[in-house]
Each structure stands twice: as structure tokens, then as C-alpha cells.
Design goal:
Largest sheet: 9 strands, mixed
Strand content: 15-25%
Number of strands: 25
Distance between the termini: 26 Å
Number of helices: 13
Helix content: 25-40%
């Protein structure tokens, strides 16, 4: 049994002790990773697993982002785990509440004890002869490397780079005498009370920051190059509140969850099939919540159709209330340059600022930045096809947990986690040691994510392709995916299974 030679540089091969082995290695301890571990506990009990988390805390996104007002733009009845209902009194929850919910779930399902914090995964190398992965992680506290082996990897590392967000350079920014901040790394001691703040951006982060900053700032200007579609939803779901008084908690949760899944599905399908009607509906809602004569066409009418980019949600119309006051304003223009005291626009106008917040987006990073090697050959994701939106052609025993772009991330993440357990149980029952997807015979592909958002377009060369039909098609439809992933066959034209080679060595496993 000869393992493929390591592709790591010498400095990352310091520790050559016998690697610790588990059945399943989960990369990431955020919302998706904790969900994956819980599903192993419930759907594939007895299987050993570990979670490798590069940071020192549970929560992922909800631990990383600390800017004022950070919250979900999905309702908690669908963002929460199906197996552990959300019991909070808000539908659109703040980041701290979501982090606390994830932590409580991890403790309840005995997942916390299986997390190795401060372990940043660098690479994973598959050996067909041994039918296992060798995973190399770098300790963030000591800088040393640690190696693990596993039969399966579930990558729940999110989709963006944690170390830095997307931050374009602006002409003249070195002249600006004030403070420049990116929301992904918000300083705990930033004092914006009584200050003039300009927030550059029009996405979910910007529309969250503006109303939150107005509570203390002298004035907040939202500066956008292109508007986004924005819709207001109740921060507390009135139907959920009514049902909670009349029905058992678990039943009320299932009803509200089903209602919200159906609502978002119908809204998305309506947007794609009748974009003009959806535009009119959104515009009508915005006019209703803004002062008479407000220039909705300039500031709230994007040059694309609804759901060409993600629709932004504001709870209880807080952004519209802020813009209706004298505490906040919105400007739609292009930046010519920064000045010593603010930002000069291409129109010639100058916006004064003491603090500039660059809510300019994320940097997509698939697989948490780790490299993959299969039998000594490096894997280039852009040359692979996605299988059921979770695996890659030619890559055995590995799933990437990637949620929906048009609904709550967790809905699809949980489908993937449950499907993984189904697949693992099927392999064990039939004597298979690996499952390897294959590409469609026609070779026709299209982008993995069908969004025109800048952060997606910048990353298309790093993402796999999707096919034109199942099982290679990435459907943005929970109701359809639920049928395919929970009840669909495990043995289809896109999947192959392999048995063990004679004499394969048996690794020493960790405790479950």
C-alpha cells in the first residue's frame, strides 16, 4: 500500500506521527458544520467524526461579523435546523442570537467535544489504494501542522474568505483624514457617536448598517453605484405568534416553516417568470414606506430583474424609516475619488465624512481555501461538474455544503447533510468504500451559481460547473430538492461505487 507522495512543501510536513483517523471529517464549525455533525449523531449513529475549525469559537459567520445591527436576512424558521426548532420571538434574528442558538445545538447534540479549534485545513489528499483522505491542518496557535485520515470529508467552511473581504482600492483614499472600516473586521472600539458616516454599498450588509448606525451617528449616507431590490418583512411573524398561543410548539414551528418555504418559493418563481410584475409589486411597497415624492426610480430600481441578484430583506422597514428621517440619506452615483474630508462623486458633489465604511462585499473562496489531490493529481474545481450541488466529478467521498442563494442557506445545507448520511449508510450496507461522481456524457456545463452579483462573477473561474439536467443540475428549489435528496435513488447515472482492494490496511479510529 503505497500512498501518493505528499504535495505539501517541507515546512508544512513537520509532524509525521501516525495520523488520527475518523470516519467523517467535517471542515468548519459554523451553522453548516454543526448541522452536519448533528445529522451524523441522528442519522448515522456510531460513526466517528471530528470537526476542524480554524477559529477559536463556534458560529462561523455569526461569530466573525460584529458590526452594528448584524442580522440574518432569512427568517429563523427556515434558517434554523429542522431537528431543533427556533424558539426565539423574532423571525429576523440578530447575529448574537443565531450564534447562541448554534452553540446550544452543539452542546445538546454532544458535538462541542468533537471540535478541534485553531485547526486551519490546508490540503486533503485521496488515496484510492487505501480508500481514504489524508488531511493536513495547520495549528493557528503554534503554527505546526497536524495530519488526520478519514473515509469521508464534509466541507462546511462557508463560501467566502474569512481573512479579508472584497476591498477595491479607491482613488485618493490615502488622503482621507478619517477612518476607513470594512464590516468584516469591525473594530470593537470604533466610536461613531456624533460622526458623519458614509456606507459604500447597497447589499445586505449596507442596508443593515445604515439604520443601526443612525442611532448614534450624526448622519449616515448610503452611497451606492447600483441599487438593490429591497423588501420589508415583519421582524416578528404574526402568524407564528398567533399559532404559538393555540398549538403545541413543535406543530406551530412545522406549520410556520412550511408556510415560509412555500412563500419564498412562490416569490422566487414569480420573480423569474413575471419580472415586470414583481418589479411593480416591490416598487409599490417601497413608495408606501417612503416620504411622498421620494426618488424611488433612482435609488431603488436596479438595472436587472429581481433575483438576478439576491433580494435584500429589511425587518419592519427599518431602512425606509431611517431614510424618512433627517438621520440618513441615500446617494446613487459613482466615486471619483476620496478627499481629505470625504468622497467626491463623478457628478461633482462631495459627501463629507468622518468615517467611511466599505460594505463592498465578500471574496468567494470555495472549500475554505484547501487544495485537493486525488491519487497525486491536483483537483481544479473549474474543470469539474457538480453532482447534486454537493459533490464533484472524479472526486471520491467528499461533499461541499453550499446552501441556497434564493432561500435560507440551512434548507439546502441540511438536505446535503442528510443525503451524506444516506450515502454513507448505503455504502456500509453494500460493502463500498468510496462513491465517486462522474461528469455528464454530453459535457455541457453552465455556471454553478446563476447570479449576476459581483462576488459570484469574480469567482466563477474557481467554482465547478453544473449540468443541464439531474443529477448534475443545481436546482434552487427546496421542494424539488427535498424529493430528490431525501427520497431519490442513490444509484444513478452520475454516481459510481468502489469496493475495497485486497489487503487494504485498517487505520486506528478515534472514539465517536
Amino acid at each position: 500500500m503505497t500512498q501518493a507522495p505528499s504535495t505539501l512543501p517541507a515546512e508544512l510536513r513537520e509532524e509525521e506521527a501516525t495520523p488520527e483517523h475518523v470516519d467523517v471529517l467535517i471542515v468548519g464549525a459554523g451553522l453548516s458544520g454543526i448541522g452536519a455533525a448533528c445529522r451524523i449523531r441522528t442519522d448515522s449513529p456510531g460513526r466517528s467524526f471530528l470537526l476542524l475549525e480554524s477559529r477559536d469559537a463556534i458560529g462561523g459567520t455569526w461569530d466573525l461579523f460584529r458590526y452594528p445591527g448584524v442580522r440574518s436576512d432569512s427568517d429563523m424558521f427556515t434558517l434554523s435546523y429542522r431537528f431543533r426548532p427556533w424558539t426565539g420571538d423574532t423571525s429576523i434574528a440578530d447575529g448574537w442570537s443565531i450564534k447562541e442558538y448554534i452553540e446550544q445545538t452543539a452542546r445538546e447534540y454532544r458535538v462541542t467535544e468533537r471540535i478541534r479549534f485553531g485547526h486551519r485545513v490546508v490540503s486533503a489528499e485521496w488515496s484510492s489504494e487505501d480508500a481514504r483522505w489524508t488531511v493536513t491542518a495547520q495549528r493557528t496557535d503554534t503554527g505546526k501542522t497536524v495530519r488526520f485520515t478519514c473515509s469521508w470529508i464534509s466541507v462546511a467552511a462557508g463560501y467566502y474568505r474569512y481573512e479579508e473581504g472584497f476591498r477595491p482600492h479607491f482613488e485618493g483614499e490615502e488622503r482621507f483624514a478619517g477612518t476607513i472600516v470594512h464590516p468584516q473586521h469591525w473594530p470593537e472600539d470604533l466610536d461613531y457617536a456624533g460622526k458623519r458616516v458614509v456606507v459604500i454599498g447597497s447589499g445586505a450588509t449596507a442596508i443593515t448598517l445604515v439604520p443601526s448606525l443612525t442611532e448614534k451617528a450624526a448622519h449616515v449616507t448610503m452611497l451606492q453605484r447600483t441599487p438593490s431590490y429591497i423588501v420589508s418583512l415583519p421582524g416578528r411573524d404574526p402568524i407564528a405568534q398567533a399559532l404559538a398561543k393555540r398549538l403545541p410548539a413543535a406543530l406551530a414551528y412545522r406549520i410556520v416553516r412550511a408556510k415560509n418555504v412555500l412563500l419564498t418559493t412562490v416569490m422566487y418563481q414569480f420573480s423569474r417568470r413575471r419580472p415586470a410584475a414583481m418589479k411593480a409589486l416591490l416598487r409599490k411597497g417601497q413608495i408606501k414606506q417612503l416620504p411622498a415624492g421620494y426618488d424611488v426610480d433612482t435609488h431603488f430600481t436596479p438595472p436587472y430583474d429581481p433575483w438576478d441578484q439576491r433580494l435584500c430583506v429589511v425587518p419592519d422597514g427599518d431602512l425606509f424609516r431611517a431614510l424618512s428621517s433627517d438621520k440618513a440619506s441615500i446617494v446613487t452615483d459613482r466615486i471619483a475619488s476620496f478627499t481629505e474630508t470625504g468622497i467626491r462623486l463623478e457628478s461633482g458633489t462631495e459627501i463629507p465624512a468622518d468615517i467611511i465604511v466599505t460594505a463592498t462585499g465578500l471574496q468567494v473562496q470555495p472549500l475554505g481555501g484547501m487544495t485537493l489531490t486525488v491519487d497525486g493529481e491536483k483537483v481544479d474545481l473549474s474543470g469539474r461538474f457538480s453532482y447534486k450541488g454537493m459533490m464533484f466529478s472524479g472526486v471520491p467521498n467528499l461533499a461541499m455544503i453550499f446552501g441556497y442563494t434564493n432561500a435560507s442557506w440551512t434548507l439546502r445545507a441540511d438536505l446535503i447533510n442528510r443525503y451524506t448520511c444516506r450515502l454513507l449508510n448505503h455504502m456500509a450496507a453494500n460493502g463500498y468504500v468510496s462513491a465517486t461522481p462522474v461528469a455528464p456524457a454530453d459535457g455541457r456545463g453552465s455556471p454553478f451559481v446563476d447570479l449576476s452579483s459581483g462576488y459570484i462573477q469574480r469567482a466563477l473561474d474557481e467554482l465547478p460547473q453544473q449540468g443541464s439536467r439531474s443529477p448534475w443540475r443545481v436546482y434552487q428549489n427546496y421542494l424539488l430538492d427535498r424529493r430528490l435528496m431525501r427520497r431519490g435513488t442513490l444509484q444513478d447515472e452520475g454516481m459510481t461505487f468502489q469496493r475495497a482492494t485486497t489487503g487494504r490496511r485498517q487505520p486506528q479510529e478515534s472514539a465517536a
